[in-house]
Amino acid sequence: MLDGAVSMIRVPVPPEMLRWACERAGHDVAHVAERVPQLWAWVRRERQPTLKQLERLAKVTHTPLGYLFLPEPPEERLPVPDYRTVSGSAAAKPSPDLLDTLYTMQRRQAWLRESLVEHEAEPLPFVGSARLGDEPDAAGREMRRALNLDEGWAAGVRTWEDAVGELRRAIEHLGVMAVINGVVGNNTHRRLRVEEFRGFALTDPYAPLIFVNGADAKSAQMFTLAHELAHIWLGTEGVSGFDTLLPGGTEVEDWCNRAAAELLAPTQEVRARWMEVRRSPNRFDSLARTFKVSPVVAARRALDVTLIDRSTFFDFYERYVKRERKRATKATGGDFFNNQNTRVGELFATQVLHAAMEGRIGFKEAYDLTGLRGGTFQKYARRLGMDLP
User: Fold this and answer.
1) In the chain, how many H helices and how many E strands?
2) Which of 228, 235, 195, 231 is nearest to 212 (CA)?
3) Burial class of residue 90, CB neighbours in 10 A (0-12, 13-18, 19+)
4) Rounded Cα distance, 20 and 14, in Å
5) What sign results for the dihedral spanned by CA atoms 293, 296, 298, 304?
6) Which residues pair with 187 in a beta bridge?
7) Which residue of 99, 139, 196, 345 is most buried, as measured by CB atoms within 10 A?
C-alpha cells in the first residue's frame, strides 16, 4: 500500500530537463509524447508527473531516472578516450545506446578482472607491449603470430561470417574478451548506429576487452576486430569510428589501422595475390574475397605496398563510397543462443557460469552480468556444455 502511495506522489521536473531527455534519445517531444501522452502537459507546466510516470519517461528515453531531478542537463562524456575524429573535428555527443554499451562492457571487465586476480591469474604480456614509435607492420605480424593464423587462412574460409567467427575465437583464445553486438544488450529495438561508432577497446592487463558494432558489414567487422586488437597491443583504450581509411587521422588510429591491415592482409600475400588479379576490372573485390576484408581495405593495402598510386586509390574509393551508400543494410536475426557467443563472449560467459555453479556469485548477479534470465540462462549454459543445478 505504501509503495503505491509513493508512486502516486507528483514531482516537479523542469520542462528543460524533459526536453533534454527527449533530445538525448534522439527524438523531439512530439515523438516521445506518442508513448508518454502526458508529456506535453508536463512540458507546459499544466501538470506534474507522478514518480511512476517519470520512471516510464526515463525508460522510454533511456535516461537514468536521477538525471531528471537535476536543475540542468549534465554534460555527458565518454568514459574512455574518443578517437572518432575527422579532420581534427570532435565527434558528436555520445548517444545513450553507446554510453549504455560502454558501461555494460566496463562492468563485465571489472568483474572478470577481479575474478582472475582472486584466482592468481598472470597478467597478459601482450597488453601494452607496443609503442607508437614501433613499426606498426611489425606489430601486425606479431599479432598474427600470437593468434596462430597460418598464411592464407582467410582464403580457406568460405564466407566473411565464418572468417569473423574464426578471428573472434582466436582473439578470445588469447584471453581477450571479443564482443560483437549490433544492439544494446539483447534489445533489438535499440540498434547501434555504425555512423556513430564501429568499435572500442578497453585495456587491462588481466581482462582486456574489444567491442565491435555488429550492425556493420561482416567485412568491416573483420577490420574492426583487428583494429581494436591493435589498441590492446598498444595499450590505448578508446572508441573508434574510422569512417575512412585515409591517412591523416590521429596518430594512434593511423598506427592501429596499419597494424590491423598487416595482420589481415600481409604484404607478401597481397603482392602474390595481386599478380593474379591486377588486370581484372574487379581486382579489389578479388583481393577482398581472398583476405575477407572490405574492398576499400583491399585497395588501401594495394596503395600501402605501392601496387597502385594515390589517384587510382582515390578514384576507386569515391566509387566505392557511392556504391555503398546505395545499399540498404538489412539486419539478420540468426540463432539466439549462437548470438550469445558473440554478444556475451564465451570467455566471459564461461567464467560467470563457473562462478555461479561454485556459489561465488548468486544467479541474480549472473543474470545481470550476462543479460540473460531464468530459463534462457539455463539453456545457454547447456549450449556451453554446463548443467546448472
Assistant:
1) 18, 6
2) 228
3) exposed
4) 10
5) negative
6) 184
7) 345
> In sequence order, which residues have a C-beta less than 8 Å from that of residue 37 and are 6 or more positions away?
none
What do you get for the CA distance between the two ends of the chain, in Å? 36
Q: How many CB atoms lie within 10 A of CB 373?
A: 13
Other CB atoms within a 10 A radius of the CB of residue 127 amount to: 20
pLDDT digits (tens, 9 = 90+) for 187-233: 888 899 988 999 999 999 999 999 999 988 888 899 999 999 999 99
Q: What is the DSSP letter of 149?
A: P
Q: Distance of CA 212 to CAs 44, 119, 217, Å?
A: 42, 28, 11
Pick the closest to residue 188 from 352, 339, 381 (CA basis).
Answer: 339
Q: Can you list the positions of beta strands (E) in the chain?
A: 177-181, 183-184, 187-191, 199-202, 209-213, 238-240
**From CA 154, how far away is CA 78, in angstroms rounded?**
35
pLDDT in tens, 16-34: 999 999 988 888 999 999 9
Q: Is the pLDDT of residue 287 over 90?
A: yes
> How remote is the C-alpha of 61 from its chain's centroid?
21
Q: How many CB atoms lie within 10 A of CB 277?
A: 17
Query: How many CB atoms are closer than 10 A to CB 248?
Result: 10
Asked if 7 contacts 52 with a C-beta cutoff of 8 angstroms, the reply is: yes
Residue 10 β-bridge partners = 50
pLDDT at 324: 66
3-state secondary structure of 326: helix
Helix (H, G, I), strand (E, B) or coil at 189: strand
State how far the alpha carbon of 245 is from the alpha carbons of 81, 193, 279, in Å: 20, 19, 24
